[in-house]
Amino acid sequence: MTGIQYIVMAIAALAPQAFAQTCATINPANPATFASGYSGRVVMNGLKTPRGFVFDCQGNILTAEQGGYGVRYIQLTDNGGTNVCVKSSKQLISDSSINHGIALTPDCKTLFVSSLTTVWSWTYDGTTGTVSNKKTVVQNMRNGGFHLSRTLLVPKANPDVLIIQRGSDGNLDSAAAKVETARSQLRIFKIADIQAAAVDYTKGEVLGMGLRNTVGVGEDPRGGIWSVDNGCDDMKRGGSDIHQENPCEELNYHGMINDTASAERGKDYGYPDCYAVWDPSIIPNGSGLKVGQNFVIDSPTAGNTDATCQAKMAPKLCFPSHTAPLDIKFNAKGDTAYVPFHGSWDRTSPDGYRLSKVAFDPVMGMPTAPSTSKTAAVNIMYNENLGGCPNKCFRPVNVAFGPNGQLFMTSDTTNEIWVIGGATYK
């Protein structure tokens, strides 16, 4: 080998290192601890209470900022793994009423965003980062002062429909027991119909009812629809306060989106009278109750009992009480679901404030753990000192997979977007 050839080869070997880009480190507002095999870094901070977010077909992030901003358009530089940083950022939609829900059709041409009362659509161009042709598509969803989020999902298995979540109007909303109130429900809307003319929320097909505040709604690779529900606060049974450890937060299954005859379609999951057990040992007159089994609380409507509650749909899994799961996303294999737990306020000892994974059987499409399990959610990112929560903790809200397979997460109280290493779409 000549001297010139050696120099050329040496330069070629060094070139990838010389030209590789490294994103600047952004120190997190509050440090996170990661399980073995996982890591993470802050991609962007300084946001205004980021909640729901999606990736468009060009790999840009669109996030709804609850802090009075609207929707932000974020272009990324992705160098692989967690080496991701912001290339540019701008306000896409200015509307202080936008608070959580956001969804794109799979072709990325139609964007849906929600407020407490309304869902709008826009024609979207991801290349230029612009929207046009604003329409009101679903309306009249106001609750008094409770549960303001309206989560949106356009299923990949049926991109012709939009699923919209609406929570309860109060901790115990007795009227939500009636389907016609259209509260504590998931409803399905045909996109072509609502694009032609706006409709009231009551006009949608009921996918599920009796769901107190199901902020997290996701789709598995088979087209199955899943949700995570936040149980009631200050629970009492037999006059005793059992709220510290009951009820559980629920993982519910709603059937295949294209199977209108599924056993779960349109069914009642129990709220406002029925809840699932987390700690049976402290429930008065609860002998024989098991984790995940439905039971009735004090002063039920329509004469409900434990027996009538157990005839309603039960969760597939339970999570610790008041941990507030707010999203669920599946990987491509369908063997793992990722669930962010926003964290408690109604417990003496804080709990939640973490990102967890749940194992699924990809063939059966169900969790591998039994419904009585208390260990199905495995933490991959968490706050080491829960005693400092919520003020000194990250609080995860939504998760989404980027175009290169990494998992991203919003944290609303710290105004950050994270990328999580080790959690991939594959």
Could you name the ranges where pLDDT drops below 50 across 5 or more consecutive residues?
Answer: 6-19
CATH topology: Neuraminidase
Largest sheet: 6 strands, antiparallel
Rounded mean pLDDT is 94
Structure description:
The chain starts with a helix and ends with a strand. 7% of the residues lie in helices and 39% in strands. It has helices spanning 3-19, 191-196, 306-310, and strands at residues 33-34, 39-44, 50-55, 61-65, 70-78, 84-94, 98-104, 110-115, 119-125, 130-139, 152-153, 161-166, 185-190, 199-200, 205-209, 216-219, 224-229, 236-237, 240-241, 249-256, 267-268, 274-276, 294-296, 317-319, 329-330, 336-341, 354-361, 366-367, 377-382, 396-401, 406-411, 416-424. It is globular. Residues 6-19 have low confidence and may be disordered. The protein has a single domain (33-424), classed as TolB, C-terminal domain (Neuraminidase). The strands form eight sheets. Strands 1, 25, 26, 27, 28 and 29 form a six-stranded antiparallel sheet that branches. The chain has a five-stranded mixed sheet with strand order 7-8-9-10-14. This is Soluble quino protein glucose dehydrogenase.
